[in-house]
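Fold this complex.
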Amino acid sequence: MTRLKEIICTVGVDLGGTNTRVAIVDAEGRMPASSNFNTRDYPRQQDFVERLAKEVDALFRILKEEGYTLRVKGIGIGAPCVDSRKRSIEGATNLPWKESFPLGRMLEEATGLPVAIANDANAAAIGEMTYGAARGMTDFIMLTLGTGVGSGIVCDGHLLSGKRGLAGELGHVTFPFASDRLCACGRKGCLQTVCASGGMVHTALELLATTTDPSPLRQPGGKLSARDIGKAVIAGDPVAKCVMRITEEALGRACAEFVALTDPEAIILFGGVANPEEMDAEHIRQVMDNYSLAIYRGRVKVLFSTLKGSQAALLGAASLPLHNP
Amino acid sequence: MTRLKEIICTVGVDLGGTNTRVAIVDAEGRMPASSNFNTRDYPRQQDFVERLAKEVDALFRILKEEGYTLRVKGIGIGAPCVDSRKRSIEGATNLPWKESFPLGRMLEEATGLPVAIANDANAAAIGEMTYGAARGMTDFIMLTLGTGVGSGIVCDGHLLSGKRGLAGELGHVTFPFASDRLCACGRKGCLQTVCASGGMVHTALELLATTTDPSPLRQPGGKLSARDIGKAVIAGDPVAKCVMRITEEALGRACAEFVALTDPEAIILFGGVANPEEMDAEHIRQVMDNYSLAIYRGRVKVLFSTLKGSQAALLGAASLPLHNP
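Structure:
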């Protein structure tokens, strides 16, 4: 007689501009089944919901056929431009739906399962708290460094949402060290104009234009990217290392202000640019301590996410149903 | 036969450097009984606790003798330098106790009543939510403008506390418009160097030194104070009005950054300097909207506290037992 294998699990959905990835995630953060499909194939909201519901159902079926019993706690979705109060996606520029998309409610109707939805950075913060570097922490700020700088703020064990679900736009807090840089938002001085991938490239181009030092960044074999800078740091290129120092300095100065908001235990760095082989968290911490109010000095850690690579967004989404909205 | 009058109430304690004020406060914010004593008469912690417990007991007795039945929900204390997690006062410079003072626990033992304790600015925020301008709001930021700039941040219906109870030091967030001003904290550029009473006097002295315009501020009959500036604004003095415009501009620019933290419904201005006859909330709102990220523009109100004068601190303290810690 074979014993039934029971899994307590959630479904994680990472809704991106190109791909939508779906995974069954168990309590330890393992993914016994996952799949993905092309987001752009479903410009009609209803079609997208139906495809997503089918995908979830197919994953359940696969596991049942393998002899598992599933206790599904709910579905969690990480996506851009989420209004977490309305559980909708609102005019995301890189998604096919320009009108308000009440995905939470629609998927709930299609699957009969409870659906939680949060913006990617907030989902990552919850994921970090559930499976990653912030496990056991009640107070931390997650900075996601990628195309932009996003953030998820957890204070007193609670992910801050705000009146319209728009809390935690720390990438658009402005700083004097960035006052000459125009942001995609139309303002000048936003943190992300220095610390997101495009900002780092901006810094590199400025340095290259004002020195004649040889550097692999001068001929990256195409358009210079943050990835090129990271690789050159590892290879020991002084120009790339200087770009990274400037980025770290900016992060440290920004974090010195952020700690006065929510008195966190740690700042957690996440995303493509936050690579411990390239970026120096200890340098960021030192700058932060230098600039911060005495009561916070020496008290706040700077850590890298331990949710690795492409799994992070999925794990973050999957952890949403485990926490209060 | 006289009917017993039942009052559901809390005890509010406003612990200040000079006076400690105590009041019984009912659900509508009325104070049927209150008293006060000199804080400095009790340099020993135990003596202070005993005096405070006696004072509370005396107020209960007065109301009982007047025929009231009391249902006391607890005691709330507003004080400087509170560690809300430890429920203690930690080395407040203007209080007689230099060592850690576990007032919460000690008063609980002395009275048998549950005791909540919070720093003054946080107590004011809870008071505003219970009895004042923020009644019914779940998301707002309270800025207390006085000798310093304090703040209490309420997000998702919850007063932010942080890892060590030190969340919400918005008066010490730094800004480029204040970069030449040294703060009492030892750093430069803190918001309070412009928007607290001393900062306003600083601005006034700078203006007076660079113009020869006649102004009542040139001879305030003693050392110039923020009070003098406020009075001169009401009297129509152009120099004082310019000081106030500069203060409002600074507040607006700061609030433009703060809204990106917690997506509030309103900024609420409280404290001696925040007087609607002198300060223009609509000007602050316009500057804030000018500088803030588009998603917040036109969405956030700027309001004055409706808790008036000396009652505010007491009402704030009294409302603490009605909310989760």
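The mean pLDDT of chain A is 92.
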